[in-house]
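Hi R.,

Here's the chain you asked about this morning:
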Amino acid sequence: MRNTLRAADSLPARAAARLLAWSAGHVAPAHRAWVSALAGELEVIEGGPARLRWALGGLSLVHNDWRNTMSSRTWPSWPDLLRTCVFGLALGAVLMVGIVWSNVIVPSHESDSEYTTWYGVFYLSLLFYFGLAGAVASMGRGSLAHSALAGAATAVISLGLALVTFVVIDNLFLDIVMTQPDKVAGFRQSGMSSQRDYVNQGLWAASIVLIFVGGVGAGCGLAGGSLYRRLRRPRPQVA
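And the predicted structure, written out as tokens:
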């Protein structure tokens, strides 16, 4: 019985010592002396439960330091987040309407190879748009990192919404989509037996490209922000 009581008393005592040791490694440098003082007084306190309650003082110091750190950290506000994403949301909405129009409402029965020049113009316009998002983000107090973030967000959000639109259309309107010459030729060459599996396989491959697209958008946004800063830089006046 006595051994049982001794073990029940030593367990919280060991826990108190370990808790103070952990607190000393996670508390702010300015408060480490306080934790050391708590540990120094631990031996004169009688009873394991009392020592454990005493050690909670070190844990409270860790909690206070963590709370002060979190309160002083600058988090993006909702207006800032909206400004970062607004270019992507706007372009995504336009792309969604265009995709539905050209694939369902007025589907085209011509090969994409006939529009190579227009596709080139479209892709160059996308790069310019990503750079424009970065330039706008750099206005005011925005940093170049914010410009890169705006460019990446614009690219991923807009093309992500376009990809989601293609997923919905290709699965809900598969009969219409599979009348496109490129889809018919690609399905025949694939050797697959399911048209749905064929289109979804292509969409899955396109989703992986979003990672690369984010990098391209970040680069364009950084270039746009840098160009804006250079144009806004005051020129030295010649006497």
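Residues 229 and 235 are 12 Å apart (CA to CA).

Let me know if you need anything else.
M.
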